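Deliverable D4.2, example record:
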Amino acid sequence: MAGMMHSLRRWLVFLLALSACLVRGQDAGMVLRYSVGYNTQRASLPLTEDQRKEAGRLDQQARRETAAGRFGEALRRYHEGTAVMRGVPWTPAVELASSLQGRLDRAMVEPGHQITVSLSPLYPIERAAEEKLGAAVFLVPAAGGEQRNLPPPAPVDPARLPFTTKITVPETASGDYFVQVRLTLGDGSAPERLIAAFVKNLPLHIEPLSGEAERLRIRLANSTGPDAPAFPTAQYPLERYQQSDRGAASPIGYDFRGQFADAHAILDALKAGRDPFAGKSGGLRKAYRSPVDQTVQPYRLFIPAQYDGTRLAPLLVALHGMGGDENSMLDGYQGALKTEAQRLGFIVACPKGRDSASMYRGSAEQDVLDVVAEVRRDFRIDAARIYVMGHSMGGFGSWSIAMARPDLFAALGPIAGGGNPEAMAKIRHIPQYVVHGDNDKTVNVDFSRRMVEAGKKAGATIVYVEVPGGGHTEIAAPQFGPMFDFFAKQSRSAGPGKD
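Output generated by the structure prediction step:
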């Protein structure tokens, strides 16, 4: 047990240190996301003792490379360890395939237009790979359906990187797709147990939208109300279009045409001197201009039908997990969060948290606080009944943000999360509803156990639900109802603080 606790402490230190590195760039976020998946595999796959030892050794090497800021080298070690765990020999060709990251020069494209696909190595190949890889490109509908083979197969020469090829989007295509680059070894095969290294899925949206995007851009530029609180919400669809086009955000599942129409409706209302969100309920998409860097940041809101502004309403801040965004909490979990919020009359706010692997540190923590301020400005929120919950990375964020602002929240609900037990005394006055599955392969249950133990020693009121046999994901939604009931009984009027 002592060895397990020591290992968990080291993993927590690594997570927090790596999340602090995210301000230095995208590579740190890539390492963090990969490290979580890597350690989930270590806990889940049926490994031999030799595989387990080698995977652990490579994990330690990756952490040292990460601490030194050599993120590419860290990824190399994680890729090699993945091959070890999957029983695939780490040959020069496998190393080459694992290293390659795909990119499109444009991800928002009109039917019949041409785009360029490129594959670039994330790190230098240590050993001379004389064997070229084959590469075939397919257009795969995101929702399933007929796949199209685009240009003829081409070789990927390790001496001539980056690899590039041009493809023409079919005139008849429209909607969400993946450009799928399928790599093969010299004999035409690809190891099935390491298929993720040999198949690169690049999201693409095909639709004639450039004219509509330009029309919205011109209207925004000529608007007379850029200081209105609702103006950033009108700006965001264009921002999202541009982000998606350059590969900074996925275009999959985003209704660009509908959101452009909503942006024009907001601008119409502002021009007429009306609040574009007055009287609306249900799920809303909103955005604000961040004081951190003046970027437009999105968030989602759920307004229960019974809210009419005549009475103060409780506010729940819901934090998504790693790889998610502002839509994850409301649109996922079979809609359970919206169901429970409607039942008890809670307003729910879902920030994006900046990078999808931010761990809610730095600018992402400020995003959460800024969203709270935005909602309190626009709605009648009971300052004594503001709550925060989250799943996975959002569970970590629930604890860390409450520790940063112990004056703000009336209760918190971390699900499959963790944090710094030594800081639990800071929030001993905040009631907590903690959930974790005892068979969680992604975030070990001992993370929550340590937090709960430290919190109870500090005098905190904690309801701890440990789900027997529960994994990482399926435990969340069934606990939303009990968690909301717990929140509904809590008020910050009994604790210290300021508004």
